[in-house]
Write a structure and sequence with these properties.
The structure is a single chain. This protein is mainly α. Helix content is 72%, strand content 0%. The chain is built from four helices and no strands.
Length: 67
């Protein structure tokens, strides 16, 4: 039996507004905390690039939807 990868729209929407919270809601607590901590640190140091925070944010929403 082939299993289709399940999509999660609600956690993605929540992660859109609060990065990492969608992963926590799905039960991926460590991943959600790492997104908060590492995303916050990287954003703090690379805020001037705009690209790094944007990439982290987009990846966070994508991961909440697909993982």
């Amino acid at each position: 039996k082939i299993m289709a990868k399940e999509k999660h729209g609600v956690p993605a929407i929540i992660s859109f507004f609060i990065p990492g919270l969608g992963q926590i809601i799905k039960g991926q607590i460590l991943k959600g905390i790492l997104i908060w901590v590492l995303g916050g640190i990287l954003t703090f140091f690379f805020w001037w690039t705009v690209i790094v925070p944007l990439v982290i944010w987009v990846w966070n929403v994508y991961d909440a939807y697909n993982s």
